[in-house]
Automatic annotation (TrEMBL), chains A, B:
The chain crosses the membrane at residues 299-317, 323-350, 371-394, 400-424, 436-459. Its main location: membrane. This is Magnesium transporter MgtE. GO terms for cellular component: plasma membrane. The lineage of its organism: Bacteria, Pseudomonadati, Verrucomicrobiota, Opitutia, Puniceicoccales. Signal peptide: none annotated. It comes from Puniceicoccus vermicola. Belongs to the SLC41A transporter family.
Amino acid sequence: MSHAESPLPESPTAVDEFSLGELILFAESHELKTLDAGRLARTSPHTVARFLERLAVDDRRVVLRLLNIEEVADVLSEMESDDAAEVLGRMRENRAVQVLEALDPDDSADIFGELKKAEQKRLLGGVDPQTADTVRTLISYPKDSAGGVMTTDVATVSRQMTVRQAVDHIQTLNNRFEHIHYVYVVDDEGKLIGTVSMRDLVISKTDDSIGDIMKSELRGVLDVMMDQEDVALEMAKHNFHALPVVDSGNLLLGMVTDDDIIDIINQEATEDFQKALGAGGDEAIHDPILNSVCRRSPWLLVNLLSAFFAGGVISIFEEQISHLTILAVCMPIVASLGGNAGGQTLAIVIRTLALGGLERKDSKSVLIREAFKAGLNGILVGMISAVAVGFLAGRWDVSIVLFVAMILSMTYAGLAGALIPITLRKMNLDPAQSSQMFLTASTDIVGFAIFLGLGSLFLL
Amino acid sequence: MSHAESPLPESPTAVDEFSLGELILFAESHELKTLDAGRLARTSPHTVARFLERLAVDDRRVVLRLLNIEEVADVLSEMESDDAAEVLGRMRENRAVQVLEALDPDDSADIFGELKKAEQKRLLGGVDPQTADTVRTLISYPKDSAGGVMTTDVATVSRQMTVRQAVDHIQTLNNRFEHIHYVYVVDDEGKLIGTVSMRDLVISKTDDSIGDIMKSELRGVLDVMMDQEDVALEMAKHNFHALPVVDSGNLLLGMVTDDDIIDIINQEATEDFQKALGAGGDEAIHDPILNSVCRRSPWLLVNLLSAFFAGGVISIFEEQISHLTILAVCMPIVASLGGNAGGQTLAIVIRTLALGGLERKDSKSVLIREAFKAGLNGILVGMISAVAVGFLAGRWDVSIVLFVAMILSMTYAGLAGALIPITLRKMNLDPAQSSQMFLTASTDIVGFAIFLGLGSLFLL
């Protein structure tokens, strides 16, 4: 090679890795066994994880057999923990134990929590006592709490140490700590008293004491039981790369890093969106068809019940409709606009709640403002509808009723679009849970009632 | 104090800061001027920013006058850049210039980009030439590209340096660099050839050369023009705290850190959710009422047009409805279930697209699978509806028509729920853009046509 005279690369080596598309081609042509193991090992674990999620269990094993323990651990840590547990449950015990030990303790605990009790017991007997202890502690915290997402691989120092002693101490820690950028200062009892960044260590004099260079006014210390959504909000609020996790007695238990938070934020956003539209919060597009169907059907049954109520409202006015069928023609216009005007409000309110932007005392003013916004748009679209119906059907009396009904039903829709998520939250339920279905159920019923009610009063 | 004998704190000091609720009370009682400046300065800039967003422009100035230049810069960097620009535009020129210089270059450029041309020119004349240069370069990149979100405050070293020389060099960099955890290695032309983490510097021997300890096989190097959504995906894929940004010639231009990414991910999730339901992507709940109304009305007008088409479909069957009003009663059941079954699919597909989980070649199988899922649920809810209508109305012929219509319309809804976002993406439009409105428009029209069509064929 012409670069022989240069022992160091002139530019960063492009990583020779598989793309997800290439991997899928291997699966489709049933040639998984011919995958180049070296190139697979260089492929980003994230890509391999996305690939495995699309494969049947047996094919997953074929692929993972090409990787060594460390590489398997990296891939499993990028998969959903239930999928990873399924893979792990089918490995030889010896290999499964090694993978569990190679995983970061937090990932290890997540995956472990998805195993059956019997499997847990069997594998926990195999792993080294220290890992077993850590895993036992971590699975005792709720999966979506700070304790459930933290890592326990934290570098701690005491404030009496000099910078040189601290650096020597960090050097003795094993290579699991490669992503650590903060060192936490604890007292003799393990209580958190300060933080030092790696950068502080780099730029301080070697005989400075840790107590002198540490930051002791700490922002964003997380309680171990804090919900992961709140953890994500704290993390977005403070621009740190990691926040320490303590118990109620300020004992340092671990830390949450912001690459964990990125996954949590994506996951929570997906959950909110999918639940709001009545799908499963953690439903994935490649899930088996029957799983998806079963996740979605309960909400459709709720929807069916509400649709029957809406139908019931219409049936009260059957007599009027048979005399004036234009009512049946205009009915869905009122319902559709109401549902969508409400949906606009719903989206804003759910996201504002998710990002912690709504104080409880704001509720009243938000309800009024959102009703007002939707009502103003009701005047606009109501006016256009009225003119259109007047010209198309030649019934200006129907126009006037439609105009009034649209303003009223859209005002109601704005109110309901704010009220539903805010009420769900007050009841400590997820504000996003199928809000759109509750919303359109109520806007249908109210819209039909207002329009047909006004129609039967003034038009017949 | 009894702790006099202990020069160092025993536990981390709780930060004495205002909560957002407390600040709002001051605003509501018009006592902003009595705010304790010291406590305000200790309050998290994020909280102060959320507070300012709720205030009128004059009140914002009253609050910001209590803070020094650095603190004002911290608060502005946490605000939406258009709001921050408005605040900056009303400061005395001298103060505005100082704030611009104190801001991180990426924030500075974001805010600058929102100023009017004349204001830009005026202020740019005031700031020091180096900052002015950086800002000019940064605003030349699209706001939502890697170049638009990166910071140019990057610590670079050459590979010939020893660890000690590198550390000495980093110590000379100003304190803007406090959050840096990686050092980039560049050649004489400024091209990126490797990375070194602060941890590597800490644990290496001081006379090791940077060339020996650097990582030269680089994953996740970002092109300066890469879209911020893709940047966020790359960041989620690699568990690094920062990724370097280069131009097409591999020249190092800056880096993107994952605390920037957290904001981007939150922002993109909000945009997708709000746009999907027809609200403004960056609409906020405390925006002035008329702004919100104007953002939402165009989509409601589109919705109105489609609702008139749905009404038009119904009007074709007016004759039949007047003879058999139960058609009008059941109509909204078909439409409502179709809309919601489609919404479930829509949510899954939009989120999967957003997280990069859908390859283009998946499209066909996704369309078929989603139609099938919705169709299966159509059989379930169709059956229940049919039985209920049969018993309630005693018309089993209507039941059968309803059953068939629900299966067909929900199958269509599943198809449409996948087709709409996938098509929008193929057209290089935002898959989330008001998808729910397009969806319910089409499910209404198709649902009414199928149900009323079958009804008029078989029931009359």
